[in-house]
Amino acid sequence: MARILIVEDDESVRAFTARAIAAGGHAVETAGDGDLGLSSIRAAQGGYDLILSDIRMPAMDGIEMARRAANEFPGLKILLMTGYAEQRERAADLQCIVVDVVAKPFSLNEIRNRVQKAIGSG
Q1: In what order do the strands lie in the sheet with 78-82?
Q2: Whole-number pLDDT of residue 122
Q3: In CATH terms, is domain 3-107 a member of 3.40.50.2300?
Q4: Which of 36, 57, 75, 98 could form a cystine bridge with 94, CB 3.0-4.6 A?
Q5: 105: which DSSP letter?
Q6: In this predicted structure, what is the pLDDT of residue 97?
Q7: Which residues of the chain have pLDDT under 50?
């Protein structure tokens, strides 16, 4: 069982993703934007097995949150998700920080498989 933080501003996507991952036996916590996500990461002292974050969010986006989290907690596994091609391209320079980028929309099985792969990487 892994401890996973999902950072997503869209409530329906956040709830769907949390249910899908929790059904796989993982402990799931959620945050509604990058500021809250970074606060959760800091409060846990980086103690997550994986951060799954949307890229495009109000306040702090997922890319900035990933940079800050990786700077403070090197080795933290981060998996980004986005429905926008240009956002995926923005994440290309984060290969040393981000495990992968998942395209939205995704199926229940796809997100479970991508999370398992990300947890097992490194």
Answers
A1: 27-31, 3-7, 50-54, 78-82, 98-103
A2: 58
A3: yes
A4: 98
A5: S
A6: 83
A7: none
* Token pair for 50: 């994986």
**Is the peptide bond between 105 and the residue preceding it cis, with omega within 30 degrees of 0?**
yes
Task: Give the pLDDT of residue 31.
Answer: 98
Burial class (CB in 10 A: 0-12, 13-18, 19+), 71: exposed
**Closest by Cα among 21, 11, 97 to 54:** 11
* pLDDT given for residue 93 in this prediction: 66
Instruction: Provide the residue ranges of all domains of the chain, joining segments of one domain with +.
Output: 3-107
- Amino acid type, 64: E
Amino acid sitting at position 99: V
Calculate the CA 27 to chain-centre distance.
14
